[in-house]
């Protein structure tokens, strides 16, 4: 259990620190790069369509390297450039989704941003050709059979790459709350799973996934990765599927906890919060403040509860293990990062989007609302397709 003197999440003034005035070594805005995995959908059956590589070729003329293939042929990945301004990142997200949708229409198909497919046969999956994907299938076997799941990954530039490990330590307690905000995968193979984020639950089966451990130092991180490679729990450093990881090829910390969210507005909310959490963590790191250290068993349980219930009901406080209203946990996060949001001029964006989510619900809530109208999973797919590229 935590040694926090006040119980519950750590005091927000300690987390917020100097960024109210923008002082310290992080005066320049941190850059954000966003990766979104989308499903390719047959508009007649509403099931995933295995034409991802063809769609990538069709969209590459306009998007270049900002579109790529994924593990299965049901998926593609869209990437933004690094941006200091989230408004510019949002414009790139919307334009990339629109370009992908237009290219899909040329193939008689649609794109959909959801953490899991609503309909369709889920196993075995059509794997994208490539040596690394083939190696993954040979090594991890049936784990790959249920990886038709889509995430939103946010990279935040870290001026000193070795700080990324310490940032990871400070971000760990907030993973359940980010999961609740991004939950967008309630359906699987035509059934409501009872979870707001079924993707989170299926992803946890991998040997190196879920909340990362607490790292005593960058050397501890490097030694642990080497041990996992030698133990063959990883095939390469790219297989670190922790919810937070220092990028192995970019000077960033990568937060991987979010489902592929419904709309570009949802993506910007997650990106703004992730950057603000990173800025707040860097401030604490440079002030020499120790990272909060919830018990790993409680943190894992909190992530499970967040994946099950999303924004509805109660979540688990990572420090006390007690149940707290999910909305209260979100408000704690917003209070902790408010100085960083102000500094990046993202506070109004986040307040507006949080107000919207309190009214409309998360992506999972909106998918279920679409289903309740006629109890039709086809309606759910159509809703997701429409929300992916709003007019």
UniProtKB/TrEMBL annotation:
<comment type="function">
    <text>ATP-dependent carboxylate-amine ligase which exhibits weak glutamate--cysteine ligase activity.</text>
</comment>
<dbReference type="InterPro" id="IPR050141">
    <property type="entry name" value="GCL_type2/YbdK_subfam"/>
</dbReference>
<protein>
    <recommendedName>
        <fullName>Putative glutamate--cysteine ligase 2</fullName>
        <ecNumber>6.3.2.2</ecNumber>
    </recommendedName>
</protein>
<dbReference type="Pfam" id="PF04107">
    <property type="entry name" value="GCS2"/>
</dbReference>
<dbReference type="GO" id="GO:0004357">
    <property type="term" value="F:glutamate-cysteine ligase activity"/>
</dbReference>
<keyword id="KW-0436">Ligase</keyword>
<keyword id="KW-0547">Nucleotide-binding</keyword>
<comment type="similarity">
    <text>Belongs to the glutamate--cysteine ligase type 2 family. YbdK subfamily.</text>
</comment>
<keyword id="KW-0067">ATP-binding</keyword>
<dbReference type="InterPro" id="IPR014746">
    <property type="entry name" value="Gln_synth/guanido_kin_cat_dom"/>
</dbReference>
<dbReference type="InterPro" id="IPR006336">
    <property type="entry name" value="GCS2"/>
</dbReference>
<dbReference type="GO" id="GO:0005524">
    <property type="term" value="F:ATP binding"/>
</dbReference>
<dbReference type="GO" id="GO:0042398">
    <property type="term" value="P:modified amino acid biosynthetic process"/>
</dbReference>
<dbReference type="InterPro" id="IPR011793">
    <property type="entry name" value="YbdK"/>
</dbReference>
<feature type="region of interest" description="Disordered">
    <location>
        <begin position="1"/>
        <end position="22"/>
    </location>
</feature>
């Amino acid at each position: 259990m935590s040694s926090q003197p006040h119980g519950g999440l750590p005091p927000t003034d300690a987390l917020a620190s100097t960024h109210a005035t923008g002082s310290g070594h992080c005066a320049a805005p941190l850059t954000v790069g966003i990766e979104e995995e989308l499903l390719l959908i047959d508009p007649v059956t509403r099931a995933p369509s295995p034409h991802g590589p063809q769609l990538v070729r069709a969209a590459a003329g306009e998007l270049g390297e900002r579109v790529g293939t994924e593990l299965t042929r049901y998926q593609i990945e869209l990437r933004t450039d690094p941006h200091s301004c989230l408004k510019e990142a949002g414009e790139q997200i919307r334009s990339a989704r629109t370009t992908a949708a237009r290219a899909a229409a040329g193939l008689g198909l649609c794109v959909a941003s959801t953490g899991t497919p609503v309909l369709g046969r889920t196993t075995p999956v059509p794997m994208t050709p490539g040596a690394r994907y083939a190696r993954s299938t040979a090594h991890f076997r049936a784990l790959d059979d249920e990886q038709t799941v889509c995430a939103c990954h946010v990279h935040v530039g870290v001026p000193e790459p070795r700080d990324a490990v310490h940032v990871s330590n400070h971000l760990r307690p907030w993973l359940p709350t980010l999961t609740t905000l991004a939950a967008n995968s309630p359906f699987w193979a035509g059934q409501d799973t009872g979870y707001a984020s079924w993707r989170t639950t299926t992803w946890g089966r991998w040997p190196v996934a879920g909340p990362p451990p607490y790292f005593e130092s960058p050397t501890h991180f490097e030694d642990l990765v080497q041990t996992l490679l030698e133990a063959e729990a990883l095939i390469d450093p790219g297989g670190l599927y922790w919810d937070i990881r220092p990028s192995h090829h970019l000077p960033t910390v990568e937060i991987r906890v979010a489902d592929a969210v419904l709309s570009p507005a949802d993506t910007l909310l997650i990106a703004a919060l992730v950057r603000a959490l990173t800025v707040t963590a860097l401030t604490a790191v440079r002030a020499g403040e120790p990272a909060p250290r919830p018990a790993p068993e409680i943190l894992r349980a909190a992530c499970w509860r967040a994946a099950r219930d999303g924004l509805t009901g109660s979540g688990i406080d990572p420090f006390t293990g007690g149940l707290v209203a999910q909305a209260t946990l979100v408000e704690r996060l917003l209070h902790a990062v408010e100085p960083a949001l102000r500094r990046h001029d993202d506070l109004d964006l986040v307040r507006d989007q949080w107000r919207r989510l309190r009214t409309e619900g998360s992506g999972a809530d909106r998918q279920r609302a679409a289903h309740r109208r006629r109890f039709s999973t086809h309606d759910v797919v159509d809703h997701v397709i429409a929300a992916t590229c709003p007019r």
